[in-house]
Design goal:
The protein is an alpha/beta fold. The protein is built from 21 helices and 13 strands. Bound molecules: D-mannonic acid.
């Protein structure tokens, strides 16, 4: 029998037949019936497998059709090119340990690329039927100084402050935005000067107090633009709820696309892959209407902080530890690293010895059980989540994931040896640039050049040189003798293991 070539793409015209096929479900709502109520910045795989799913489930549970999503891409137009010809439709391939299922999603009602569509995004943010913006622009999307304020030396920020000045003075369209927060701030200015209707900006990135961080940067842009009246309105009418988001979403591979193709009978260029687990804790702080996400399993609460801290410290830190140690030892995936001799024990030690003592358990959570459930999710052999994917952007991730734990342990008079091991594993990953078998390990990091420059030199001084990178390591940590020594010792050991 000759192989079948599937040429038709998933789209509004083809979806009905695909949805009839065994193993395929969705869309849970009729995409044609949805109007746009949300602008989402950073329409990557994570958003499509997480918030978009909750939003569609909430619409299906309530029949409320106001919450279609306009997705805004990052600097590349790729997602717009993938989803445009598919009328915004894509599917989520959920991979449990021993089974897969496919669900077609209909809540993405448009995709805009800031390079060409900034004006459309501004208009949509100002529209009265749009009530919120959400963000998954990754850690590096928040241009912050070490102390937390807006980085006014960032060239994109400088350009966007000028564009915001033009926007608030009512001058004509100032061209494409350079940063997602710059585009958002301009859209908020447009909204202020049109309806002034209340609005919520919901950050869904892996940052601590992510709502406050986003608020301070948006206000920072308005301040830098001298936009006094906008600042007053932002204060009075716009909320910035914090959220904790959790779902493991590996990068989609061609093998995943072929698997989905067999199920759908159609080609889906927008396919995303995810684990079965999902969690969303949202600070209940919305001045206008919002989707009934609680009907889709999200938790709306007054206190997100304990959940955020526990997730970032427990899940993301152990993820990074397994990623760096695993990558150095030549393991392609996180599941391979978990299955490898000894590595899961290192992750467990990190959780038990260093992290758990710094945490308050979120309501209804036993932290030791939580830690085990995380390691069990990481072990899913069907996911194919690569160590190199989790290893990227270490300069942005380490401060959020491990340095708070380290600081808390040092304050308590303890040396966090496993925390030091994580920092050391990242250092050796940066320095070696290859695994134990000699295979290259790419350094994908916005600070890659600075990191390579700092790492360059003798093995003996490596830990000291990288601890000296001030944008990552605060003085109190870098200067702490006990911590410094623990990192240097771990670096020495790892260098000898990856000669
Ligand atoms: C991962 C996260 O890539 C990474 O750095 O640690 O994306 C992780 O999979 C998610 O935060 C899980 O919710």
């Amino acid at each position: 029998m000759s192989a079948i070539t599937i040429t038709d793409r998933l789209s509004l015209a083809t979806v009905a037949a695909a949805a009839e096929r065994p193993g395929v479900s969705g869309p849970a709502v009729d995409p044609r019936a949805l109007s746009t109520g949300i602008v989402h910045f950073g329409v990557g795989a994570f958003h499509r497998a997480h918030q978009a799913v909750y939003t569609e489930d909430a619409a299906a549970a309530t029949g409320d059709t106001r919450w279609g999503i306009l997705g805004v891409t990052g600097r590349s137009a790729r997602v717009a090119e993938q989803l445009g010809p598919q009328d915004g439709l894509y599917s989520v391939l959920t991979k449990a340990r021993d089974s897969s299922s496919l669900r077609v999603m209909g809540s993405m009602r448009g995709v805009a690329f800031p390079g060409t569509d900034s004006e459309e995004v501004l208009r949509t943010l100002a529209a009265e039927n749009v009530h919120l913006a959400s963000l998954t622009i990754t850690e590096k999307g928040y241009p912050r100084m070490l102390g937390g304020g807006l980085d006014l030396t960032h060239p994109g920020v400088v350009a966007d402050v000028n564009a915001l000045k033009a926007e608030v003075s009512g001058r004509s369209f100032a061209g494409p935005a350079r940063t997602p927060l710059g585009l958002l701030a301009r859209g908020l200015a447009r909204r202020h000067s049109s309806s002034g209707a209340p609005f919520a900006v919901m950050c869904c990135d892996n940052l601590m107090s992510n709502g406050s961080v986003t608020r301070s940067l948006v206000l920072g842009l308005a301040e830098a633009a001298g936009a006094e009246r906008l600042l007053e309105w932002l204060d009075a009418a716009v909320s910035f709820p914090s959220t904790m988001v959790d779902r493991i979403v590996p990068a989609t591979t061609e093998a995943n696309r072929r698997e989905a193709e067999r199920l759908l009978g159609l080609r889906d260029e927008g396919l995303v892959v995810a684990e079965p687990f999902g969690q969303w804790i949202i600070e209940d702080k919305f001045p206008g209407p919002r989707p009934a996400w609680e009907r889709a399993g999200a938790v709306l609460t007054g206190d997100v902080g304990t959940f955020e801290l526990a997730k970032l410290r427990m899940l993301n830190a152990t993820h990074s530890l397994l990623a760096y140690l695993g990558a150095l030892r030549g393991y392609p995936t996180i599941a391979d690293a978990v299955a490898a001799d000894g590595l899961v024990e290192e992750a467990r030690r990190l959780q038990r010895n260093d992290i758990i003592p710094t945490l308050t358990a979120p309501p209804g959570t036993d932290l030791a059980d939580y830690g085990e459930s995380i390691l069990d999710r990481f072990a899913n052999p069907n996911l194919g989540h690569t160590t190199i994917q989790v290893a990227m952007d270490g300069s942005q991730k380490l401060p959020v994931r491990i340095l708070g734990t380290v600081a808390d342990r040092l304050t308590a008079g303890e040396i966090p040896y496993s925390g030091a091991l994580l920092v050391a594993a990242w250092m050796v990953f940066v320095y070696r640039g290859r695994d134990v078998n000699g295979q290259p390990l790419a350094l994908d990091d916005p600070m890659a050049d600075a990191l390579r420059a700092a790492a360059d030199g003798s093995e003996a001084g490596l830990a000291d040189r990288l601890l000296g990178v001030k944008q990552i390591f605060p003085e109190e940590l870098a200067g702490h003798t006990g911590f410094r020594t623990a990192v240097a010792e771990a670096v020495r050991r790892l260098l000898s293991e990856v000669p």
